[in-house]
Amino acid sequence: MRDVWTTGHVRAAEERVLARTAPGALMRRAAYGVAARTAALLAERTGGVAGRRVVLLVGAGNNGGDALWAGAFLRKRSVGVTAVLLAPDRAHAEGLAALRRAGGRVGAPEDVDFADLVVDGIVGLSARGPLRPDAAAVVARVRAPVVSVDLPSGVDPDTGAVDGPAVTADVTVTFGAYKPVHFLAGARCGDVHLVDLGLELADPDFRVLDRADVARVWPVPGAEDDKYTQGVVGIAAGSETYPGAAVLAVGAAVQATSGLTRYAGAAAEEVRRRWPEVITTGSVGDAGRVQAWVAGPGLGTGKASRDVLRYVFESGVASCVDADGITLLATHPDLWDARDPDAPVVLTPHAREFARIAEPLGITLGADRVAAAVALAAKVDATVLLKGHATVVAAPDGRVLVNPARSHWLATAGSGDVLSGLIGALLAAGLDPLLAAGCAAWLHVRAGDLAARGAPTPASAIVSALPSAIRAVLHG
Ligand SMILES: NC(=O)C1=CN([C@@H]2O[C@H](COP(=O)(O)OP(=O)(O)OC[C@H]3O[C@@H](n4cnc5c(N)ncnc54)[C@H](OP(=O)(O)O)[C@@H]3O)[C@@H](O)[C@H]2O)[C@@H](O)CC1
Ligand SMILES: [K+]
Q1: Strand 2-4's sheet: what is its strand order?
Q2: Secondary structure element (H or E) that encloses residue 264, with its range
Q3: Binding site membership of 180 for ligand 1 (Cβ less than 6 Å)
Q4: Mean pLDDT over residues 318-345, rounded?
Q5: Is the pLDDT of residue 412 over 90?
Q6: Is any ligand 1 atom within 6 A of the Cβ of residue 241?
Q7: Which of 94, 158, 218, 264 has a 20 to 30 Å separation from 18 between CA atoms?
Q8: How many CB atoms lie within 10 A of CB 273?
Q9: Which ligand is nearest to the CA of 122?
C-alpha cells in the first residue's frame, strides 16, 4: 500500500521538519537523491557516468535549487553539468553557487541539443498550469532521457491534469511523500522514486494498492467452504440487443472467485452456452438467493430494466450498478428510494456517465477527479468507481483508492462489463465495497496487460486472462 498526500499537507509537514533542521539540509538530501538516480539512469542509457553531459533546466524556485545542488553532486562524479536558467534573476542562489564551485557552468537552451540526460527542475510543488512559453520552448528541444525533480513540470501536482505543454519524464525523484500527480498522471512521471525526508504526516488523501494488498483480501476457499459459503453473485445484465455484456460480466464473476454465479435476464441462452456452470433464469425474481447483484451492463433503459434495478435495490444485498443501471439512476432518481439503506452500492461510471448522474446533483467532473468522486460518493451514499486512465474509487466515508493503469489497451468495448462482474463477485464474497472495487480494478488492469501484451485485446480475452492474473497475485 502506498500512501499519497496532496501538496498542502506535504508542505505543512516539510515546514515542521525545516524548523528543526540546519538550513539547506533538506534540500541537499533531496538533491543527493536526484543525483543518485540521474547517475543510475545515465549508466543504464549510456553505459557510463563520468564524462557524460547533463543539462539542468532550472526554474525560479526551490525545485530549481534541487536541480542545481544535484548538478553539484554530479560534478563530483566527473559529469559535465550545464544549467539553463529560465529565470536567471531568481535562480536559487546557494544552489547556483554550489554548482559553480563544483565546476558546473551556466549555458543556453541550445545546450539541450547535446545533452545525454536532462534534469527537469523547472517547477515543483508551486506549479500552476502548463509550462510557460519560454520553458515550453526549451522542453520541446529535449531528445535525451529526462529526470524530473519532484514531479514533471507542467503537470498539476494535486490533480495530475495537463492542459498544455508539460514534461514527460523517464524517472521522477520525489521527496518526503508521494503526491497525487505520481498516480493520477503516472505515464508522465515514468519510474517514481521516493527520497525519505522524515516527514510526519496524518491520514493520507488517498491510497494505492499493491499486489500484496490484493493478495491479502482476495477470496480463497478454505476446507469448510462450499459453493454457497463463498458468496453467490447474481448478474442482471444483457438484453436481446446486447447479450455480450451479460456473457462478459458473468465470465468475469465465474473466474474471479469459487462462489456460485447466477444469471437473470434475456441473454440466459447465450450465457448458458458459454458458461455451463452458471444457474440462469429469465428474471431477477426467479433467480434465487444471492449475496450481491451486478445490475446494468447491456441491460437497456426501458421500463423492464427499471423494474430490475428496483428489485435489486429492494433485495437488501450489496450491488454494483454499471452502464445502463447508472443511466437509469440518472433519469429516474426515484429509484434510489427503493434502496435498502444498509445495503452497500458501488457505482462504476465512466466520465460521461459520471456527468449524467452527478451534474443534476450539482457536482461537476473538472480537473480534480478525486474531489468529484468523493463528492458524488458522499452525496449518494455509495462507493463511486470513476473509470479513467487512473481509476478513482471513493467511499462515502471519504476513503479513496487510486489505481493507475499501465497501458491503454483496457479502453476497449466490453472491458467495463468485465470489471463489474469482478466487483460483484468480490462484493458477494463479503469484501468491504471500497476494497472490492479497488481490488477488482487492480486485477482488471493486470488481466488486461496479460491479455494485451502490447497489442489490442478483445474484452473476452481479458476474461480468459483472469485466472493467470489471480495466480500471479496470489503466488507472486
Ligand atoms: N519545502 C521544502 O522543504 C523542500 C522543497 N523542496 C523542493 O522545493 C519545491 C517547491 O519549491 P517552491 O515552493 O520554491 O516552488 P517551485 O515549485 O520551485 O516553483 C517556483 C516558481 O515557478 C513559477 N511557476 C509556477 N508555475 C509554473 C509553470 N507552470 N511553469 C513555469 N513556472 C511556473 C512560480 O513563480 P512565479 O513566476 O509565478 O512567480 C513558482 O513560484 C519542491 O517541489 C521540491 O522540489 C525540496 O528541496 C525538499 C525540501
Ligand atoms: K520538476
Answers
A1: 2-4, 206-208, 400-404, 390-394, 383-386, 345-347, 318-321, 292-295, 233-236, 261-264, 279-281
A2: strand 261-264
A3: no
A4: 97
A5: no
A6: no
A7: 158
A8: 11
A9: 2
Domains in the chain, start-ordered, CATH in brackets? 2-206 (3.40.50.10260), 211-475 (3.40.1190.20)
Q: Kindly report the pTM of this predicted structure.
A: 0.96
What residue's CA is closest to ligand 1, atom 30?
131
The response to whether residue 135 sits with its C-beta less than 6 Å from ligand 1 reads: yes
The residue whose CB lies within 8 Å of the most ligand 1 atoms, and thus the one to mutate among 63, 96, 149, 193, is 63
- What is the atom index within ligand 1 of the atom nearest the CA of 31? 47
Per-residue pLDDT tens over the stretch 335-363: 999 999 999 999 999 999 999 999 999 99
- Confirm or reject: Cβ of 127 under 6 Å from ligand 1: yes
Count of beta carbons in the 10 Å neighbourhood of residue 46: 15
Residue 226 pLDDT grade (very low, low, confident, very high; cuts 50, 70, 90): confident
By C-alpha distance, which of 325, 316, 346 is closest to 423? 346
Q: Which atom of ligand 1 is nearest to the CA of 130?
A: 29
ipTM for the complex shown: 0.97
The H or E element spanning position 311 is helix 303-314
pLDDT in tens, 15-74: 999 999 999 999 999 999 999 999 999 999 999 999 999 999 999 999 999 999 999 999
CA–centroid distance, residue 88 to ligand 2 (Å): 17
Q: How close is the Cα of 187 to the center of ligand 2, in Å?
A: 15
**Residue corresponding to grid cell 546557494:** 94
